[in-house]
Amino acid sequence: MAHAGGRPTKYNKKLCEKALKLFEKGFSIVQVAAEFNVSKDTIFEWAKVHPEFSDSLAKGKAKAEAFWETILQGGASGANEQPVNQGLLSLIMKCRYHWTETKDINLNAAVDDVTSLTPEDRKRRIAELMQKANVQS
């Protein structure tokens, strides 16, 4: 299939397997695009046009995330031979895979019967609870 500008596409079905192998090594979409000497937008365009490539991309993203999770688990357990930069790895997971840090804060246990408080006391108590929540984070 020719590109809209007349240039033939670089896509072929063999790229599906090549992409999967790169993702298994933890590569990002940008890195896969660089390996194929195309832009990230081209990767996404191929996925729109070629269902088999879209499938490889979806599977590949899962494989790449699993790669990094394995490193993270090895670092946490001490199983990795090399030390793991947990801050950098955390940033990778947040940026690439939209991981978030959740905080479970139970304010109900610390809430007084607010009906007996004056408005000024309520404000003071809210400020105390907010400070407590920030200190625990």
Question: Overview of this structure, please?
Answer:
This protein is mostly helical and 137 residues long. The radius of gyration is 24 Å and the shape is elongated. Helices cover 63% and strands 0% of the residues. Helix 4 packs antiparallel against helix 5. It is built from six helices and no strands. The protein starts with 13 loop residues before the first helix and ends with a helix. The protein has two domains: 84 residues, Arc Repressor Mutant, subunit A, CATH 1.10.10; 36 residues, no CATH class.
Could you give a short account of the major beta sheet? none
- Shape, please? elongated
CATH class (first level) name of the largest domain: Mainly Alpha
CATH domain fold name of the largest domain: Arc Repressor Mutant, subunit A
Per DSSP, what share of the residues sits in E-state strands of 2 or more residues? Answer: under 5%
Second CATH tier, the architecture of the largest domain: Orthogonal Bundle
Helix-strand category: mainly alpha
Report, as a whole number of angstroms, the end-to-end distance: 54 Å
Are there runs of 5+ residues with pLDDT below 50, and where?
A: none
